[in-house]
Design goal:
alpha/beta; six-stranded mixed β-sheet; 24 helices
């Protein structure tokens, strides 16, 4: 029986449904565990609220996180657009959850469909269908509430589209849609989209390959031109910062590439990616693969893997690299059945197994506890700003405080403030710069992480500590377990102290506020 005949046997929906069922059940269990620990529904990061705040501004005709101030704080060109419905109501809060469940189901279905199209029919196919979305942390990725899950689905759509093209010599809407959406969901998606367009060209579809390449590039160029027309840098500040992890801002291309390669080699996800890259190169020369059209899949994922090493990021809730690990794993598994023995299939499954070994302990031990600290820290900062302070405020995690807040919120970390981002990148953080920026915006109170994030000298002599919000729970994905409340010298302390006392009476378990002045009585938590 020929391979093409073999892939037409069996039921095409069996593996996709198994993959989707396993993914949804695992994600539901994670959400329930997090809700039971936190006591409320909450995202495990402040970042989804940044997108929600931007979506709120888009819905009202602006772009940024504050009324009348243009800023490019979002790391995704189109994700905030998906969050614009219900911008004036509390329902908007659940849109990141909705889109991540949609992305998770789509990615799992595509994963299972890739396995079926590749020819997996027996027990190995069932195991890979069920284990893949969980081991590759798609279930945990959907938990973040960010755009990365949809990006993963778009990436797998590209891979499945290429697989069908190599097997059946037909272009599908999946390939076109994936190439369009991947770069618009995450800038890193450009590498895979262009590699796929090159693959189409090499397969003899010259006009289609050129067209798909333009489809990948032109919408992103249009978005960058839009930012430029609004007076912003064409690449969002958050993207520039995350590409370097805030550590490399000079030194030239060679220093940058050295830093990125070093980063990949010294953490497990990067090591799995580099192993997958080597496996892809090696499998290209195996009998049965080296002369088959599917060989182009290995070239595509290898090029995309290099793109992520050079332009992408790893870590911080394990969300940045999942799309490339899933795509490279799918590419390896898709090519392996063409080899004359079962060994390449087993070898191709190694990255999936290694990913499970790395991610699953963290998902089980850390993820369910990650929502509670957001609630007891960021949530309480937002409650104070919106329900008690009711005036401009400065912070360094802006999302939760800015979302549904009619007052101005100054981002002293810089991702939502182009002027401050330029100060940070230029290394011009002179003593008192943060306090001066806050004073420029008429801000009298700031809520800033303690420790290395902001030192006393960065606020300057015109500011004094008024108190500290302590987070007495696990804070693995927060910047600090203490938030210092700063008050400007020209503010009347009594008025703010009264507001802080009233607010502190409603703090949940796990949060405490202490006044800096020892003569003040500490309010009950």
């Amino acid at each position: 029986m020929t391979h093409s005949a073999a892939i037409n046997q069996g039921t095409a929906w069996r593996l996709p449904l198994l993959a989707a069922g396993a993914a949804v059940l695992a994600h539901f269990a994670l959400q329930v565990a997090a809700w039971m620990i936190a006591g409320v529904f909450e995202y495990p990061l402040d970042d989804p609220y940044i997108h929600l705040a931007i979506a709120e501004q888009i819905a009202s005709g602006g772009y940024g996180v504050n009324d009348g101030e243009i800023a490019a704080a979002a790391s995704s060109p189109i994700y905030p657009l998906l969050l614009t419905p219900f911008a004036e109501s509390a329902v908007q809060r659940y849109l990141p959850l909705f889109w991540n469940v949609v992305g998770l189901v789509a990615a799992a279905l595509l994963w299972g469909r890739i396995l079926w199209q590749a020819g997996y029919r027996g027990g190995l196919g069932v195991v890979l269908a069920i284990a893949g979305p969980v081991a590759l942390n798609m279930t945990g990725l959907a938990f973040t509430g960010m755009e990365h899950m949809l990006h993963t689905a778009a990436s797998l759509a590209i891979l499945l589209g290429l697989l069908i093209l190599t097997d059946e010599d037909r272009l599908t809407p999946l390939l076109v849609l994936g190439i369009l959406l991947a770069p618009l969901l995450r800038f890193e998606g450009m590498a895979l989209a262009l590699a796929a367009a090159l693959a189409v060209l090499l397969l003899g579809r010259v006009r289609a390959g050129i067209g798909l390449g333009l489809l990948a590039v032109l919408p992103v160029m249009g978005f960058c031109a839009l930012l430029w027309s609004m007076g912003l840098d064409p690449v969002p500040s958050s993207v520039r910062f995350k590409m370097t992890a805030g550590e490399v801002v000079s030194g030239g291309p060679l220093e940058y590439f050295r830093f990125k390669l070093y980063t990949a080699m010294h953490q497990p996800p990067g090591q799995i990616l580099l192993l997958s890259f080597l496996l892809a190169l090696g499998m290209m020369f195996l009998p049965g693969i080296r002369t088959a059209p599917r060989r182009i899949l290995l070239l595509t994922v290898a090029l995309a893997g290099v793109g992520h090493v050079l332009l992408g990021k790893f870590g911080w809730f394990d969300r940045y690299e999942i799309y490339i690990l899933a795509t490279m794993s799918a590419g390896l598994l898709a090519a392996a059945p063409l080899a004359p023995t079962v060994v390449p299939r087993l070898v191709a499954a190694v990255p999936v197994a290694l990913a499970g070994v790395f991610y699953l302990p963290t998902v089980v031990a850390e993820y369910p506890r990650a929502s509670r600290p957001i609630h007891v820290q960021q949530g309480q900062m937002a409650r104070f700003a919106k329900d008690f302070l009711n005036e401009p405020v400065a912070v360094n995690d802006i999302g939760y405080v800015a979302w549904h807040n009619p007052d101005y919120v100054l981002d002293l970390w810089g991702l939502a403030n182009a002027d401050i981002m330029r100060l940070i990148e230029a290394g011009e953080n002179v003593p008192g710069w943060a306090g001066a920026q806050a004073a420029e915006h008429g801000i009298k109170l700031a809520m800033l992480y303690a420790g290395d994030w902001f030192r006393d000298e960065e606020m300057g002599e015109g500011w004094q500590r008024i108190g500290v919000l302590h987070t007495d729970v696990h804070v693995n994905y927060l910047g600090s377990d203490e938030v210092v409340f700063w008050l400007s010298a020209d503010a009347e302390p009594e008025a703010y102290t009264e507001k802080l006392r009233a607010w502190a009476e409603g703090l949940p378990e796990g949060a405490r506020f202490t006044f800096t002045d020892p003569s003040d009585e500490e309010p009950a938590a």
